[in-house]
Each structure stands twice: as C-alpha cells, then as structure tokens.
Design a protein that fits this description.
Helix content is 72%, strand content 4%. By secondary structure, the protein is mainly alpha-helical. Helix 1 runs antiparallel to helix 3. The two termini are 35 Å apart.
Length: 90
Amino acid sequence: MNNEKVVKIDGVEIDSTFLMKKALTLTAVATQTSLLIRLLEGLEFDCKHGGGLNLEHFIETNGLSELTEGLTHIKEQVQEISDAICPDPD
C-alpha cells in the first residue's frame, strides 16, 4: 500500500519529472541572469575607467534592447514557473 500523497495543480500531477523540468528552467534562468550581470559589470568597469567608446558602441549596436529583451525573457520564465506551481485562484 502506497501512503504517498499525490499533489495536483490544475489537474497536473506534481511529481519528480514536473519538479525536474522546473528546476532545469530555473537553472537556465540563473545562467541567463549571470550572463546579463557580467555584461553590466563589464559596462560599469568600462565607464569607471574612461572607456566611453565601448558604451557608445554597445548602445549603437542595440545592446540595450538586447539587454532589455533578456531581462524580459527571464521575467516571463520566472512568472511561468510561479504560475505552474501556484496558479491564481479563479
């Protein structure tokens, strides 16, 4: 006899496979976040040490747009995980 409780969220069984998928997504989000942080640290270092040309190049080549897209993607992924593990009550 199995005494293990089964948890379902919106009809989806929360098992080790479900949790592993969410953990992998969170790991990918953490990696993306780290890369964006490194990019910002590089720009900060460049600005502090008088390297304005690199910042201008970054802006001129749509770096800020790509940075915004990356942050927006991270936000969406985190919200998706949040919704999956704790959906809004109807």
